Amino acid sequence: MHCIVTAGPTYEPIDQVRRLTNHSTGQLGTGLAKRLADDGHEVTLLRGRAATHKEMPEGIGFQEFTTTADLTEKLECLARAEPVAGGVFHTAAISDFAVGQIFQRADDGQLKPLNAGKISSRIGHLLLELKSTPKIIASLREWFKEALLLGWKYEVDGDRDSALGQGQTQIVENQTNGCVVNGPAYGNGFGWLSNDHPAEHLADKAELFNRLAGLAK
User: Fold this and answer.
1) Which CATH number is correct for 2-96+133-213, 3.40.640.10, 3.40.50.10300, 3.40.250.10, 3.30.70.1730?
2) What is the pLDDT of residue 107?
3) Which of 3, 10, 148, 173 is the most buried (most CB within 10 A)?
């Protein structure tokens, strides 16, 4: 099976030297890609340029992405390419926001838009407008109509039950086949959800990789 794995963070430019990004090393997605390749699958790993984990597993196709728009374009290209992907493991940490306008508040209270290649740090306090980025996972079923699609849900607030509930909502809303849930709200380990089985607890990465690799057939 041709498997696509996304890993690491996207970033969105604030100006030409500063970025807005998520905290993600890319290590877990890289490890999953390696496991799938070891099992004999053809694997394409899409990893964020800002990922701190730089391992390059042998025998894996590799592409590097930057912004949410860049990752979107690369996935759309892969959806049209041969061989057709049979599985998409979407572990990347996508920035939910891109930068809109940057403002400086004048003495009279009016907001003055700023446009520069590098915003001067001597200006003082600034106001940063954030715009929602498109949800890549919402388009995966359209791009990969017959593929096994797996998403990820990292939850900070709430408890394990609420985190699993968010994961189940992701499955229903995006027509995916399953979702991995983790983060402070879930606690230690990982929760595995599918669209036809009850939630399953996986204690560590080894159990997670075994579970996900078993889905790729």
Assistant:
1) 3.40.50.10300
2) 78
3) 10
